Amino acid sequence: MTTAANRFWSQTEAILDEVPADVRVQRDDFYSQPGWDVFQMRYTSADGYWLYAWLSVPKGNGPFPAIVRMPDYASVHDIVYTPMREWAVVMNPTFRGQRQSDQIFQAEFPGLLTEGIEDTETYIMRRVFADALRGFDALLAQDQAILGNIAVTGAGLGGALALAVAARRIAVHAVAANTPLALGNPASLAKGLAYPLAELDDYMRLYPDRKDTVKQNTADLDPLKIARRITAPVLLSVGINDTGLCPLAFGEKLAERIPDCDFRAYHGASEGGGHEHAQIQLSWLSDKLGLG
Amino acid sequence: MATEQDLQDFETQVTCPDDFDDFWSGTLELLAGISLKPVITAEPLRSNDDAHVFNVTYLSLGGLEISAWYSLPAQGEGPFPAVINFPGYKSEPPVRRDWAKKGVAVLSVAVRGKLKSSSEFNPGYPGLLTSGLESKENYGYRGVISDCVRGVDFLRSRPEIDPERIFACGSSQGGGLTLITSALRPEIKAGVAGYPFLCCYPEAMTMFRSYPYDELACYVRANPDEQEQMLDILRYFDAVNFAPRIKCPMVVGIALDDEVCPPETSYAAYQALSGHKELWLFPNSGHGNAHDYPGQERAWLEGQIGLSAATS
Fold first, then answer.
1. How far is CA B63 from CA B36, B56, B111, in A?
2. How many CB atoms lie within 10 A of CB B269?
3. Three-state DSSP class for B188?
4. pLDDT interval class at B308 (50, 70, 90)
5. What value does the mean pLDDT of chain A take?
6. How sure is the predictor about B311, in pLDDT bands with cuts at 50, 70 and 90?
7. If you average pLDDT over residues B240-269, what whole number do you get?
8. Is B309 contained in some domain?
9. Measuring CA to CA, how many Å separate B102 from each of A172, B78, B151, B169?
10. Where residue B10 sits, what CATH number does that domain have?
């Protein structure tokens, strides 16, 4: 990891340390099911920002394995849905600006990727990564379920967030990252990409004198810079025709740097391995979490 | 995974209300009484050498202001053929610049409740599917469908658009809205409905326990006495009841392992189509992730639009 990236992550941890998570959990009677309870979680992140998460807890005493599904690059994060929710605690945390975490700041899509990019202090995506770390910490702090092994998953931005959390939190037992967003890597600045990465080129086209700023202020977020720190096994998937999230060459480099990586490349675009990989991931996670 | 035989064996219990056409003609009359008041604002950040991108607003049912992304080819003066793109349930409408190189305009509609159109109606996610379910007049989807109809009206009002070449597409909720809007606006010349949502509510809400349909199951669990009334209201918003009223060519794309929009329910909408229709089945694919779907959608629409190989 570069010195600058190291400094960014140290600063992010320090900023989080200043703010107690203040986790609050409330059962959602409307969405709870006979087989599992659904909770609304709220907790604070960097800058005292309130965040929201869906939490699903199986009926019974536990301990239960847990899955944290990091949010996509989208305005909403799913209410918990996975066939594993009957056997595992599942948390779907949001980041600032997403629905239900938008009291102060409402993210735009497209738009979030360059929000405040003029300065490292204002660049929103740096705080989005802090929110991911805080989401994981909030799961550990909640008192609704006793937790066993914890896996972190995600696609696109969620894939990059899952890798970052795994690099920073030793409690992560396994990671399933699909088409992780190449934000911060030079590959994200190429012309002719699809959205969301194309937002960076849009910005540089309108403000050609800020190209270096964009490069510098995103660089610390490059997943390649934290990949070697990940000790948990990683299932990594990409689509060979993907130009909007995880260009193939970037995905291959990422796989090389992750110490324990099961890399799968599919004939797809941003959907990565699609349905085929979803089945593989389900089986892989079940195995890693002791559910198989 | 569903089989083709499963699709063919499926019979929905959905019936069409006697006053279905009256309800929707009344809604269209209400819309006709509301001035469109379009406002078009350039979006230089999203424009490039291929496409001039604009933010559009227009008024819809209840006088709500609806937003949309509007992409015009940077080359040529038109009138251009146009594709109207309807959004999924939880996704924001995309900026579609990909058609511009081919000389096609795209209107990507942010129906009410989407971020760009949420100032006066914002049920959030989850929530839209049960918003206003107390009556068909107040049901949220009456507005959502109206917003799509008005998008077609916007395109027809524009001098740079060829009113004889307006086409529609969308996936999931966007697929359902493609079917429904094509029934209400025969000015749409052809459409592609991928993995269509909004079909066969009584069955869809019980076949899987996935959202958004599971919102209805949760609603019934919380309000057991209202199930009959809820299902009666939903008949007015079921794509299966709109399908026989569609006159233009229509494709329905179905993933056989779709656990969000059950394949059987989408197939019922396909079966109910009475005009020229095509069925695309994707085995070993789930909701929204059939690898070949985007390419097929594009190629089929290009054929309908009449784009020559020279523009490819």
1. 9, 15, 13
2. 30
3. strand
4. low
5. 96
6. very low
7. 98
8. no
9. 48, 12, 21, 17
10. 3.40.50.1820
**Inter-chain CB proximity B125 and A76 less than 8 Å:** yes
Kindly list the residues from chain B whose CB atom is less than 8 angstroms away from the CB atom of residue A100.
124
Does a structural domain hold residue B205?
Answer: yes
Mean pLDDT of chain B: 96
Q: Which residues of A touch B126 (CB under 8 A)?
A: 31, 79
Is B206 a member of any domain? Answer: yes
- Which structural domain range is residue B225 located in? 4-303
Determine contact: A78 vs chain B, CB below 8 A.
yes
Which residue ranges form the domains of chain A, and what is each CATH number? 3-287 (3.40.50.1820)
Residues in B touching A206 (Cβ below 8 Å) = 44-45
- Residue A170 CB burial class (10 angstroms; 0-12, 13-18, ≥19): exposed
Does residue B236 have a pLDDT over 70?
yes
Q: How far apart (Å, rounded) are the C-alpha atoms in residues B124 and A76?
A: 9
Residues of B serving a catalytic function are: 172, 258, 287
Query: H or E segment at B41?
Result: strand B39-42
Residues A163 and A173: their CA atoms lie apart, in Å, by 12
CB neighbourhood size of B311 (10 A):
12
Using the Cβ of A50 and the Cβ atoms of chain B, whether some distance falls under 8 Å is answered with no
Considering the domain boundaries, does residue B311 fall inside one?
A: no
Domain count, chain B: 1
**Residues B120-165: tens digit of each pLDDT:** 999 989 999 999 999 999 999 999 999 999 999 999 999 999 999 9
Task: Report, as ranges of residue numbers, the positions in chain A whose pLDDT lies below 70.
Answer: 292
B89-100 average pLDDT score: 95
Distance from CA of B98 to the nearest CA of A (A): 9
Is B45 in contact with A100 (Cβ distance < 8 A)? no
